[in-house]
Design brief:
The complex is a heterodimer of chains A (289) and B (391). Chain A folds into 3 domains: 1-129, Alpha-Beta Complex (Sufe protein. Chain: A), CATH 3.90.1010; 141-204, Arc Repressor Mutant, subunit A (Orthogonal Bundle); 213-286, 2-Layer Sandwich (GMP Synthetase, Chain A, domain 3), CATH 3.30.300.130. Chain A is built from 10 helices and 8 strands. Chain A has helices spanning 6-13, 63-76, 81-85, 89-95, 104-121, 155-165, 170-177, 187-201, 213-234, 263-277, and strands at 26-32, 37-45, 52-60, 146-148, 153-154, 237-245, 248-255, 283-286. In chain A, the strands form 3 sheets. A 3-stranded antiparallel beta sheet of chain A has the order 1-2-3. In chain A, strands 6-7-8 form a 3-stranded mixed beta sheet, with helices on one face. In chain A, a hairpin with a 4-residue loop joins strand 4 and strand 5. In chain A, helix 6 crosses helix 8. Chain B folds into 2 domains: 4-10 and 256-390, Aspartate Aminotransferase, domain 1 (Alpha-Beta Complex); 16-252, 3-Layer(aba) Sandwich (Aspartate Aminotransferase, domain 2), CATH 3.40.640. Helix content of chain B is 44%, strand content 14%. In chain B, helix 5 links the parallel strand 3 and strand 4. Chain B starts with a strand and ends with a helix. The relative contact order of chain B is 0.15. Classes of the chains: A alpha+beta (289), B alpha/beta (391). The interface between A and B is medium-sized, with 33 and 30 residues.
Chain lengths: 289, 391
């Protein structure tokens, strides 16, 4: 059973603002029957067309999807459109006292519907997707391309969610956006997007001039954890650091990498990365064990 | 809150007679059955009796019964053994709707260079025997097909499938954890080589299983060490649980008629009433031969986890093939293999009954579920469109 907070349970069992607004100023729809969740959000503005005076929703989905929608409608009432737009999916989750990580995509769906509704109201273009799946349509970007074909999710949308939620693994991205959760074919691409976003946030990395032995070992471990293992996970593999002796790094390949015919190639890739970020003289040895 | 337990394919209540049978074998009669002294010997005697009781339910001989820790262990042991017995055969056959205990293992084998064929099912969940016939060849080490599906209750023609496998010299294993106690099984007149049983699916405790191994079938043990179970499964016997399973099997034999009369009638009444009172619902596996205690119903325009939690508020315990309950994002592999329409794939609920289910409990679900579905449909954008179209 999911560990839902009392607030999530309350908003699921007694959802606020279910229904529609016949003369709504803005309507945002995201999701589909095939995706397993969908949200239709109605907003009514005041006379000056500035503040949200009423909000209603209809949701197809699990308890946390219904609770997130209910929370969203409560949060936007009384806010200006710009204030509403600044609501992040984390704030929706916080309003509910937190969501299980696997359910964070429900909070993202709420925020997405809000953006679609406001973009449509303001006459900003919403691209029509030829697929029936339409998550991520809140991020119109003609440069944006579909990454996850199963759920129809674009790279622009993924990068935004990765950045705002500070995600570091493909699994987290799946929990927050559903991308990669069906066939898994786009997980390598998600890894690349994570690397891209992290790269933007970090200072450009240069190899340090001088390293004490301790610093060197720490840096080797850091590069293995942050840069190398996520790449292997994408292919169902893994590695374990067994020992560091001066510049000699001993690793053992695990899961799909163990006994993989191209493990020699993978070992060279690891070596190259370590030379790039740690020291020129690193030698990687694959050890059975 | 008093529970209305309709999730017996997940696990069952330990029958009180079963619990009483095992109770003395923890604090009082705690000897090791392998010991030479009288104190272990009396436990050994009781374990032997349990083995006879299990064998009787399966129509097997006592030397064909290997006690394990669970159904998953039995499944893993059977498949691994076949691969070790036939090192030159590099092909494994299973179905797309197997329990993960079999399917995960088979899929992992592809990474070790094995060819793995997953036989498909039709929209009612029935096995494609023609596909099986075409798939089995001289390279096939083992065919592993479940006797009855845990989600839909659909029964596979395992005897025919076993004959097809045997014709090419492959071993045949069946995961029968949902079938034992509900369907008459007679291994004496069968050609199945290996069969898995799980105690907690038939009113014995969790943590005890059986691998039936036909006499003369080559076998390599999964756990090695001591000489227990004729060296086919090392490790000190879980004597209390074995004794419990023996009693549970004896009772299952006694109550098998009830499963197929009283329980089946309750199941039929439940699904007929729900289908009559809730529009746009479908029974998963309708038209196929199914277990007497199981019904899986898909409701359009609503999501399964939400249904389960509203049922749970009323004390009703059921299960779902929906994505959101498991944390995965797609409906169950069983429903996908059956091609359940996407409009209702996310809204499937499984009710699985037992001999402890009462008529009042069935009445309560029949009374409460329609308003739950109605409530969620009124909340769902697709449900609202549907309800409007009904007016």
């Amino acid at each position: 059973m999911w560990d839902y907070t009392p607030t999530v349970k309350d908003h699921f069992l007694n959802p606020r603002n279910v229904g529609d607004i016949p003369d709504a100023d803005a309507i945002g729809e995201v999701g589909s029957l095939a995706c397993g969740d969908a949200l239709k959000l109605y907003l009514k503005l005041d006379e000056n067309k500035d503040k949200i005076v009423d909000a209603k929703f209809q949701t197809f989905g699990c308890a946390s999807a219904i609770a997130s929608s209910s929370a969203l409608t409560e949060m936007v009432k009384g806010k200006t459109l710009d204030e509403a737009l600044s609501i992040s999916n984390q704030e929706i989750a916080e309003f509910l006292g937190g969501l299980p990580e696997e359910k964070m995509h429900c909070s993202v769906m709420g925020q997405e519907a809000l953006e679609v509704a406001i973009a449509k109201y303001r006459g900003e273009p919403i691209p029509e997707h030829d697929s029936e799946h339409d998550h991520g349509q809140a991020y119109p970007d003609h440069e944006g391309t579909i990454v996850c074909k199963c759920f129809g999710i674009t790279d622009t949308f993924l990068k935004k969610v990765i950045e705002t939620n500070k995600l570091t693994t493909a699994e987290q991205v799946t929990h927050f956006t559903k991308a990669g959760g069906a066939c898994g074919g786009c997980i390598p691409k998600i890894q690349e997007l994570i690397a891209e976003v992290l790269g933007q946030n970090n200072q450009p990395r240069t190899r340090p001039e001088k390293l004490s032995n301790l610093k060197k070992m720490q840096l080797i471990q850091e590069v293995l954890e942050k840069d190398i293992r996520p790449l292997l996970w994408a292919d169902g593999g893994d590695l374990e650091l067994l020992d560091i002796d001066g510049s000699k790094v001993q690793v053992a390949f695990r899961k799909a990498c163990a006994g993989c015919a191209s493990s020699g190639y993978t070992a060279r890739m690891v070596e190259q990365k370590l030379r790039e970020f740690v020291a020129e003289d690193i030698v990687v040895e694959e050890v059975a064990g | 809150m008093k529970e209305i337990y309709l999730d017996n394919n997940a696990t069952t209540k330990v029958d009180e007679a079963v619990f009483e049978e095992m109770r003395p074998y923890f604090c009082e009669l705690y000897g090791n059955p392998s010991s030479m002294h009288f104190f272990g010997g009396q436990v050994q005697g009781k374990v032997n009796e349990a083995r006879q009781r299990v064998a009787a339910l399966l129509g097997a001989s006592t030397d064909e019964i290997i006690f394990t820790a669970c159904g998953t262990e039995s499944d893993n042991a059977a498949i691994r053994s076949a691969l070790e017995v036939f090192p030159d055969r590099r092909h494994v056959i299973t179905s797309r709707v197997e329990h993960p205990a079999v399917l995960t293992q088979c899929r992992n084998l592809t990474q070790k260079g094995y060819r793995v064929t997953e036989i498909g099912v039709d929209s009612a969940g029935r096995l494609d025997l023609e596909e099986l016939k075409a798939a089995v060849d001289e390279d096939t080490a083992i065919v592993s097909l479940m006797w009855a599906n845990n989600e839909t209750g659909v029964i596979f023609p395992v005897e025919e499938a076993a004959a097809i496998a045997k014709a090419k010299g492959a071993l045949f294993h069946t995961d029968a954890v949902q079938a034992v106690g509900k369907i008459k099984i007679d291994m004496a007149s069968s050609c199945i080589d290996m069969l898995s049983v799980s105690g907690h699916k038939l009113h014995a405790p969790k943590g005890i299983g059986v691998l039936y191994l036909r006499r003369g079938t080559p076998f390599r043990p999964f756990l090695v060490g001591g000489h227990q179970e004729k060296s086919r499964r090392a490790g000190t016997e879980n004597a209390g649980a074995i004794i419990a399973l023996g009693k549970a099997c004896e009772l299952a034999g006694t109550y098998m008629d009830i499963e197929n009369s009283q329980v089946k009638a309750q199941r039929d009444r439940l699904q007929d009433a729900l289908m009559a009172s809730i529009p746009n619902a479908r029974i998963n596996g309708e038209g196929a031969d199914r277990l007497p205690n199981t019904t899986s119903i898909a409701f359009e325009f609503v999501e399964g986890e939400a249904i389960l939690l509203l049922l749970s508020e009323l004390g009703i315990c059921a299960s779902s093939g929906s994505a959101c309950t498991s944390g995965s994002l797609e409906p169950s592999h069983v429903l996908r293999a059956m091609g359940v329409p996407f409009t209702c794939a996310h809204g499937s609920i499984r009710f699985s009954l037992s001999r402890f289910t009462t008529d009042d409990e069935i009445d309560f679900v029949i009374k409460e579920l329609p308003s739950i579905i109605q409530r969620l449909r009124q909340m769902s954008p697709f449900g609202r469109e549907f309800l409007k179209s009904q007016v």
